[in-house]
Write a structure and sequence with these properties.
Structural class: mainly alpha
CATH superfamily of the largest domain: Intergrase catalytic core
Helix content: 55-70%
CATH architecture of the largest domain: Orthogonal Bundle
Number of domains: 2
Order of helices and strands: HHHHHHHEEEHHH
Strand content: under 5%
CATH topology of the largest domain: hpI Integrase, Chain A
Strand order of the largest sheet: 1-2-3
Largest sheet: 3 strands, antiparallel
CATH class of the largest domain: Mainly Alpha
Number of helices: 10
Amino acid sequence: MLHRQINQFLDYCRLADFSIRSIQALSARLNEFEIFLKTQTIRSIKRVRYRHLIEFAADHNVPSIHVTKSRVWAIRHFYHFLTLHQIVPENIATGLLYPKIEKTVPQFLTIEEYIRLLGRFTDRADLPMGLRNLIIIMLLGTLGLRTGTLTALNIEHIDLTCGLLWIREKGRRQRSMVLPHCICKIIRDYLQPQRRKKGPLLISKRKKRISPRTLQDIFRSAADQLGIDKKLHARLFRHTAATHLNHA
């Protein structure tokens, strides 16, 4: 019975246009919930009490604080669905609180470090792959794009005449961003010899869309050569863009 209700809930989430990653996370946490209820010999969702939710979220298999937060999120969504469809008489998960996670100060690149990176990639911009890598660094450091957003960019998403970029963010949200003139010029120089008008913007030597692994290799090589002791990744560039924009 519970397994069927979980599947109905996941179908509901798909119709509600939840992202694929959200549905996968909900499925994983609710499968854990189903296993937990079996250990409590509870076979009907109507027999679940608030104390069971607390025990599952905070104690079952000694979860980390992030897993606890994920479980609370899944249970709250699940019980909203159950109440909405009158499968349970009341939503006992409304009092389930998210654990407090201490916030740490995010790492970011200093202006000097970012300029050194730009200099390294600019020196190699006379080659197609070097020009591509310069575009990557500038898009990440200037606009703060996420890895998935960057690798998913298509040529059709860019208007170089108007200086606009259309992106799909987390949760499938779409929005436009202003592209600085200098980035538009570099992208134009990158695309002109290739004579491509559609398809992935950033491609590998094999003419395929670049992967997150390719980005990791680019960042690792640059950090090693410049002696930067920070692990370079898209989130670091995102924090860098936000920090320097805030201080501007």
